[in-house]
Amino acid sequence: MLNIIFYLFIGITAIQFCYYIFVFGKFSFAKEQKITPKRIPISVIVCAKNEEDNVARFIPLLAEQDYPDYEIILINDASSDTTLDIFEEFEKQYAHVRIVNVENNEAFWGNKKFALTLGIKAAKKDYLLFTDADCYPLSKNWITNMSSQLTLRKTIVLGYGAYEKIAKSFLNKIIRFETILTAVQYFSWAKAGHPYMGVGRNLAYKKEEFFNMNGFIDHMKIRSGDDDLFINQAATGKNTAICYSPESFTLSKPKTTFKEWFQQKRRHTSTASFYKTFDKMQLGLFYSSQLLFLLLAILLFSFQFNWKFVLPIVLLRYTYAYISLGYAAKKLNEKDVMYWYPVIEFIMVFTQLNIFITNTFSKPMHWK
Fold first, then answer.
1. Given this model, what pLDDT does residue 106 score?
2. Percent over 90 (pLDDT), the chain
3. Domains of the chain, earliest start first
4. Least packed by Cβ within 10 Å: which of 178, 179, 300, 308?
């Protein structure tokens, strides 16, 4: 039996090697991205529900972008706080800011996709750039960088949405590591010609793509997925580009308690169950191979079975994974999280297992 486990362990390690080197390496080892500015008209779209503090801080950073032709569509999704009042002040202050005020609709109660649909229809520009109300761009050249990847053929651009760093917070390192790993996955598969998701914190596409898919109609009843489910449906190897230049990044406020973050990850994971079959399979294979690698390694070490062979295999696996993710983390300005890589990965793998089990027995809550 231990011989069978040992050979299974070698096979699982080989699967991990293929992911980290041949798949993730497409992004990790890619050359630095060059930016050629364009003058494509852009509508920046922000949907907010009860985000008075965030929009007061971050909308000015959007309104003062160094870009020649853009508007900002601020969507107030039936907020009960002063979000709409703050939006109206910005509309008076900035000529290129427009408001879409969404009232509660019984048929689409609490559905962000309904509010986004109204905002997209109100946009006057042909290209749309999305971010969240709790996000802000890292530079005044955010629009310039994201729009630079749009062409006549590349009508979808996947960007990177980072999280703020919190000093002396190990949870923050876990959150940022998970964000890196997610970005490496969707960037790499996009470069491989098989894009499967993007994040609404930093995402661009031509309005035509939205109407070609009949908007969010195929998954309107699913509360989440205005970003990843739409991309899973609309993106192809021919129409999708990625943008990972440092000035294209956005930053968001991260969760500060494990419970809040766990609930957030439950929502994200539940949405992935609606991806295309191949995408669910490749994600499932990666995460299950991570889990099996750890479990089988622990089992073999506990019986001291062929430890002189098991130990080098374990060290080799961590070496190539560290190199692959390390190069990616450098591109994404997240090098510090890699110092804790083995520990964080161990926590992440079993957290993912916990999320899978929890979601199996109960549904997570979604948009506010």
1. 57
2. 88
3. 2-27+277-360 (no CATH), 33-255 (3.90.550.10)
4. 308
Identity at 24, one-letter amino acid code: F
CA distance 249 to 201: 9
State the SS3 of the chain.
CHHHHHHHHHHHHHHHHHHHHHHCHHHHCCCCCCCCCCCCCEEEEEEECCCHHHHHHHHHHHHCCCCCCEEEEEEEECCCCCHHHHHHHHHHHCCCEEEEEECCCHHHCCCHHHHHHHHHHHCCCCEEEEEECCEEECCCCHHHHHHCCCCCCCCEEECCEEECCCCCCHHHHHHHHHHHHHHHHHHHHHHCCCCCCCCCCCEEEEHHHHHHCCCCHHHCCCCCCCCHHHHHHHCCCCCEEECCCHHHCEEECCCCCHHHHHHHHHHHHHHHCCCCHHHHHHHHHHHHHHHHHHHHHHHHHHCCCCHHHHHHHHHHHHHHHHHHHHHHHHHCCCHHHHHHHHHHHHHHHHHHHHHHHHHHHCCCCCCC
* pTM given for the model: 0.93
Tokens 């929009």 -> residue: 55
Q: Kindly report, residue by residue over 179-218, the tens digit of the pLDDT.
A: 999 999 999 999 999 999 999 999 999 999 999 999 999 9
